[in-house]
Write a structure and sequence with these properties.
mainly beta, disordered N terminus, OB fold (Dihydrolipoamide Acetyltransferase, E2P)
C-alpha cells in the first residue's frame, strides 16, 4: 500500500502531520494499525468478559480494568475486517489469549478497550500521509493516515473517531 498525496480520510488534511508520530503499533486480522501513545490509558491481557445485553454486535462485553468496568469492543468488527482471525472475539484457547491484548483508549470523556491480536511495538512512525484511494470503507472513516514503520506501512487510527463512532461513553 503506498500513500497518495491527497486529503486524509476526513477530507480536511488536518490530521496528516509533517512530523513523526509515536504510539502503539498492533496487529488486527493480519493488518498493522497504530494509535497515539497519549490516547492509550493502559494495555492489559484479555480477561473474562461480562456480557452486556442489548449492546451492538461490536461490543464484546465489559472487563474489569484498573478497578473499574470498561466496555471492550472488537476492532475487527468495527473496521469490517473478516472475522476469521483472533481479533473478532476474545480468543478461547490459552495460547491465543496470551498473545491478545486490550488497549484501553481514552478521548475526552470517551473510554473503551479494543481487542488487538498482538502489540508489535511502542514506536515512532514516519510522518502520516493521507490514506490511499481504495482504503477499506470503515478503516478510512477511523484513520488519521498512514505512516512508515520498519519495511512497511501502518494505518494510524484516531481514538476519538473510534470512540465517537462506536458511541461509547466513559461508563456503561
Amino acid at each position: 500500500m503506498s500513500p497518495a498525496p491527497a486529503e486524509t480520510a476526513s477530507g480536511s488534511g488536518d490530521d496528516a502531520a509533517s512530523a513523526s508520530t509515536t504510539g502503539f503499533v498492533f496487529a488486527v486480522g493480519g493488518e498493522l494499525y497504530g494509535v497515539d501513545l497519549d490516547e492509550v490509558v493502559v494495555a492489559v491481557g484479555v480477561a473474562e468478559l461480562l456480557d452486556v445485553p442489548w449492546t451492538p454486535a461490536h461490543v464484546l462485553g465489559v472487563q474489569r480494568i484498573q478497578g473499574g468496568f470498561e466496555a471492550i469492543i472488537s476492532l475487527q468488527r468495527v473496521l469490517g475486517i473478516p472475522e476469521e482471525g483472533p481479533g473478532d472475539a476474545p480468543p478461547a484457547d490459552d495460547a491465543r489469549r496470551s498473545r491478545s491484548r486490550v488497549l484501553l483508549l481514552r478521548a475526552g470523556d470517551l473510554r473503551a478497550g479494543i481487542v488487538v491480536d498482538r502489540i508489535e511495538d511502542v514506536a515512532e512512525v514516519g510522518a502520516l500521509t493521507p490514506c490511499p484511494p481504495g482504503t477499506r470503507g470503515q478503516v478510512a472513516v477511523y484513520a488519521r493516515g498512514v505512516g512508515r514503520w520498519r519495511d512497511g506501512f501502518v494505518c494510524w487510527l484516531s481514538a476519538e473517531r473510534l470512540l465517537q463512532g462506536t458511541a461509547l461513553r466513559a461508563s456503561l
